[in-house]
Design a protein that fits this description.
With 401 residues, the protein is an alpha+beta fold. The chain contains 10 helices and 10 strands. Bound molecules: flavin-adenine dinucleotide (FAD). This is Acyl-CoA dehydrogenase.
Length: 401
């Protein structure tokens, strides 16, 4: 085996894309990632490079100027990028989810208006479900849209927008009671609005404020923000799909592909942690030999590599299932759950292998140690994945007695 996490059955085009991305990661991302992360600096040069490679349009259909590639190709690229620096994969992830939602659910006018510029990376997307009082329980959303002529007026506060400052298009999920009688199930009275704005902070459009960056433990470089809507007026033509009441389903569809993406990030970070651990273990000597020659360390490396392989296989399986047109919520939930848990464990083992040096900011593993926990939370916590998996299992294995 040449290296871990190989994928059988890729086309020549997929192999070429992946080798270009891997090369870019090795040359342009890994050498600068830790320094930029410590300064919490936005990686503008890297983003420009990704734009040039066409990665912002990887899954956008060719008719809109994208590369029209599959979810599998996208996920494998994300795995490579996260191996270099997880924050960079975060920059393309919300963009990818919004482009996917537009492709699947947008009106023709919305696709024509947004997708070509999204493919070029000139419009960049963020998506916003969470609020200060909720994350897992999306049905409890309190932000609201009220119809006023040909427009909707939006009020409320959103939380945790990845790319909230740097994006120019935000897909925002709010409650829209208009047209839905009293007592309608919460998920049937939600609507996704496509909100265009200027990148930056402060009042970026009348009625819309992005207060500033949230100071985070890891996942630095990429901006995470709040979003405040105070009488924000959005034309009715910017209701995703043109019809209210479908937002919950549209967002859940987006999150489902997002979960494959988070699994891919977990795979990439775990691979990098393994690489760092296996290298360090052969350089550091104790009791007269490299620590890699102590069986306890070899066992650690064996466990780490097995987890990297298992997570990769599940992530690839979930992506292929979606690409084949089948429902993949079970596979995506399992892949996201397993890959994020394994990632945390592999990173911790690599940290332990580094001994005291793992605690020093000079060593890359220190950064990975602060980054891995975000994967346990984003796109649904482990508990939420297990709820999805459990429900689906009871559907599949219904008791027939
Ligand atoms: C860095 C970062 C970036 C993010 N980016 C985005 C983004 O771009 N857009 C966006 O919309 N959101 C984003 N989020 C929000 C993220 O999706 C939520 O944080 C996540 O869904 C969890 O929600 P919460 O934080 O409100 O936790 P809560 O929902 O309050 O959960 C707290 C704890 O309770 C558990 N729990 C909740 N309900 C149950 C239950 N029924 N049974 C058992 N346990 C339960 C959870 O698993 C968790 O352990 C981001 C978050 C972070 C940290």
């Amino acid at each position: 085996m040449a290296r871990l996490a190989q994928t059988a059955g890729l086309t020549d085009v997929q192999q070429e894309i992946l080798s270009t991305v891997r090369d870019f990661v090795d040359k342009e991302i890994i050498p600068v990632a830790t320094e930029l992360e410590h300064r919490d600096e936005y990686p503008q040069q890297i983003v420009d490079g990704l734009k040039e490679l066409g990665l912002f349009g990887l899954m956008i259909p060719e008719e809109y100027g994208g590369l029209g590639e599959s979810l599998l190709t996208y996920a494998l690229c994300v795995e490579e990028i996260a191996r270099g620096w997880m924050s960079v994969s975060g920059i393309i992830n919300t963009h990818f989810i919004v482009a996917y939602m537009l492709k699947q659910h947008g009106t023709q006018e919305q696709k024509d208006h947004f997708l070509p510029r999204m493919a070029a990376g000139d419009i960049r997307g963020a998506f916003s479900m969470s609020e200060p009082g909720l994350g897992s329980d999306v049905s409890a959303i309190t932000s609201k849209a009220v119809k006023d002529g040909d427009e909707y007026v939006l009020n409320g506060q959103k939380m945790w927008l990845t790319n909230g400052g740097t994006s120019s298009l935000v897909a925002v999920l709010v409650r829209s009671d208009e047209g839905h009688p009293e007592g309608t199930a919460p998920h049937k009275s939600m609507t996704t609005f496509l909100v265009e704005k200027e990148p930056g902070f402060g009042e970026v459009r009348p009625g819309l404020t992005i207060p500033g960056k949230i100071d985070k433990m890891g996942y630095k470089g990429v901006d995470t923000t709040e979003l405040i809507m105070d009488g924000l007026r959005v034309p009715a033509a910017r209701v995703l799909g043109g019809v209210t009441g479908r937002g919950f389903y549209q967002m859940m569809d987006g999150v489902e592909v997002g979960r494959v993406n988070v699994a891919a990030r977990g795979c990439g970070v775990a691979q990098r942690a393994f690489e760092l651990g296996v290298q360090y273990a052969q350089q550091r000597h104790t009791f007269g030999k490299p620590i890699a020659q102590h069986q306890a360390i070899q066992f650690k490396l064996a466990e780490m590599a097995t987890k990297v392989e298992a997570a990769h296989a599940m992530m690839v399986n979930a992506a292929r299932k979606k690409d084949s047109g089948e429902r993949n919520d079970l596979e995506a939930g399992m892949a996201k759950y397993l890959a994020s848990e394994y990632c945390k464990e592999v990173v911790e083992d690599a940290f332990r292998i580094h001994g005291g040096y793992g605690f020093s900011k000079e060593y890359e593993i220190e950064r990975l140690y602060r980054e891995a926990p975000m994967l346990l939370i984003g796109e649904g916590t482990a508990e939420i994945q297990k709820m999805i998996i459990g429900r689906r299992l009871l559907e599949e294995y219904r008791f027939q007695g």
